[in-house]
Automatic annotation (TrEMBL):
Residues 20-66, 180-202 are annotated as: Disordered. InterPro entries: DUF4187, G_patch_dom, GPATCH11. It comes from the Eukaryota. Residues 22-66 have a biased composition (Basic and acidic residues). One of its GO terms (cellular component) is kinetochore. Residues 184-196 have a biased composition (Acidic residues). Pfam families: DUF4187, G-patch. This is G-patch domain-containing protein. One of its GO terms (molecular function) is nucleic acid binding. Residues 66-112 form the G-patch domain.
Length: 259
């Protein structure tokens, strides 16, 4: 850089800007805003709590002098201002700071609450089983998949019941695959369902257990296959075809991915 060129990083530019700002006349809007700010500051009444806090902080910042009664008592016992307490003068040199207590709980309650919270965290950490991130991701994915299968099974059982009833089928073991729900409608119709169940034939428990022991995926496959073979109904198309030939020709396939 030549000597003739000015360094824009120097303080000269800043000093020039400050000098210009000091000599510049304020506009009417700037003067008006300044007046409004001053009026608001003058008219602002501080809350009592804020006034007490400011007065307390002002008092705590003041050092005790010889006129203070506590200081007089200490000096009579050999204390010298600026030194520490104790025979070896190794104690504190300033009064113990005030720790204001918030809330209305009893003395020591805050400590107990902190202790309980810390113990709860330690207990939770002790119970928490460390799991590999990849295993956790797979677990969450499987749970989501099972939840989706459960919804599909519930819908498939409903379609199966409807078509069976339309064709005068009184019972079907596939109806037992309907997932248990906590809907209010079922609670209101609990008595009606009990009466209907009494009329329906009871299937051997081992057959029901064997059917429910299947994975959710295979349970859904059994329902979908029954609907296709019996009523030419495709669960994934949500449509009923005229016959098997119509189903095989116009339905994309037996799997959800085919649709």
């Amino acid at each position: 850089m030549s000597d003739e060129e000015e360094d824009y990083m120097s303080t000269k530019y800043l000093e020039t800007a400050q000098a210009f700002e000091s000599t510049r006349k304020e506009t009417y809007s700037e003067r008006r805003k300044k007046q409004l700010r001053e009026q608001q500051e003058k008219g602002y009444i501080k809350p009592r709590a804020q006034l007490e806090k400011e007065e307390r902080e002002r008092g705590l910042k003041q050092h005790m002098d010889e006129k203070n009664k506590g200081m007089k008592m200490l000096m009579k016992m050999g204390f010298k201002k600026g030194s520490g307490l104790g025979q070896q003068q190794s104690g504190i040199m300033e009064p113990i700071a005030i720790d204001l207590k918030a809330g209305r709980s009893g003395i020591g309650m805050d400590t107990q609450l902190l202790k309980r919270a810390r113990e709860a965290e330690e207990e939770e950490a002790r119970k928490r089983v460390e799991i590999d991130p990849e295993d956790y991701r797979l677990l969450m994915a499987q749970r989501a998949k099972d939840a989706q299968y459960t919804r599909y099974i519930a819908a498939a059982v409903s379609v199966c019941e409807k078509l069976d009833e339309e064709n005068k089928v009184e019972s079907n073991i596939l109806w037992t695959l309907k997932p248990a729900t906590l809907s209010t409608e079922e609670e209101e119709k609990e008595e009606e369902e009990k009466e209907e169940e009494e009329k329906k034939p009871v299937y051997p428990q081992d057959m029901v257990d064997k059917l429910k022991a299947l994975s959710l995926e295979h349970q859904l496959e059994a329902l979908v296959e029954y609907l296709r073979d019996t009523y030419f109904y495709c669960f994934w198309c949500r449509a009923k075809y005229d016959d098997k030939q119509d189903l095989d020709t116009n339905c994309p396939g037996t799997e959800e991915d085919d649709h």
